[in-house]
Amino acid sequence: LLPNAPRRSAESARRTTATTVDRVGRDRTTISQCMCMAPTPLPLAFLFFQLVISIVAAFGMTHTTSSTDGTITLTPRNEADQTAAVVICHGLGDTSAGFEDVAGHLSSSFPYVKFILPTAPTQKVTMNMGMPMPSWYDIVGLDKRSNEFCKGIEESRSRIAGIVKSEMDAGIQRSRIVLVGFSQGGALSLYTGMQLDGADGPLGGIVVLSGYLPHASGFKITKGFEGTPIFHGHGQADPLVKLEAAKESQSEVQKRGSTNYELKVYPGLPHSVSPQEIADVGAFLGRVLPPDDSCKVQLKDPGEMSIKELRGAIAKAGLGRQAVGLMEKREFVELLKQHRDGKL
Q1: Tens digit of pLDDT for each residue in 138-157?
Q2: Which helix (H) or strand (E) holds 164?
Q3: 234 catalytically annotated
Q4: Residue 81 phi/psi, 5° resolution?
Q5: Pick the catalytic residue: 183, 249, 258, 272?
Q6: Going by DSSP bridges, is the β-strand pair 62-66/230-235 parallel, antiparallel, or unpaired?
Q7: Which of 210, 271, 272, 274 does the annotation list as catalytic?
Q8: CA–CA separation, 270 vs 315, rounded Å?
Q9: Which residues contact 258 (CB under 8 A, 6 or more apart)?
Q10: DSSP assignment, residue 163?
């Protein structure tokens, strides 16, 4: 079983700590706990406290919703402020909750970005003795030959492409969308992002964390996507997706035409993420998704909404208290309009 970033519960949200997992079958270890195990250099301590502060701040800047299929979405408190989207895919055996804290941290620096965290379907995984678990596709083994057998990857690819299309249908340009993933989720993000249809141009970027290129024999970069920015972060001490696999993935993608593939190695890091790596992801997002008010999402006019739609939008915007006592549709419409105009 490939370990992944741990799941986020209500308790972990209150603790507001980032989490990592670096071994199979053992309990998760928080960054704060890691600090108690050994002397912590000042830069790491600074990054940790910066992470805590940003997660706390993010709770007031975004609205979080969960759907029945396990997707978690962090939307700017004022939906009208959205100009970009980031889709984060978790690793094998995890769920969308595994990276909710990371998304919350990043959203504090990118208040105009909508973060979408889907959950993989539960299916049997050959490598794990056929045990059913959340998985984007079947994994037969960790060697190069086994990596060609990825049953279910095309279905997952279509699902992520569908999420990208939904954001585009709402008015977000594809160049303002980034795919991010950890381990198996990183593999899916790379496989999907470089092979989208070419009609709407390439993505703003792709982030692969402790991932690899799956099903290389079926991978072909869409014409015009060669310059798509790719950031690949990988632990030097990763015992599962070894560094050699990351280097080979970079080489294979470059052989197929990629001209903007950065592989950054983190000394001593196992199969997990670190505060510095998340900081680097933030820097990457800042480069490929800078603020741009000309790209705002196209929202339905409040005056054209039904009462049900108005109530949903008001709840999503955190305007429940202001809506207490309102009875007429025009009152709900005015409340939502004032919120979108920044008057509340």
Answers
A1: 999 888 888 899 999 999 99
A2: helix 153-169
A3: no
A4: -85, -10
A5: 183
A6: unpaired
A7: 271
A8: 41
A9: 194, 221, 226, 228, 230
A10: H
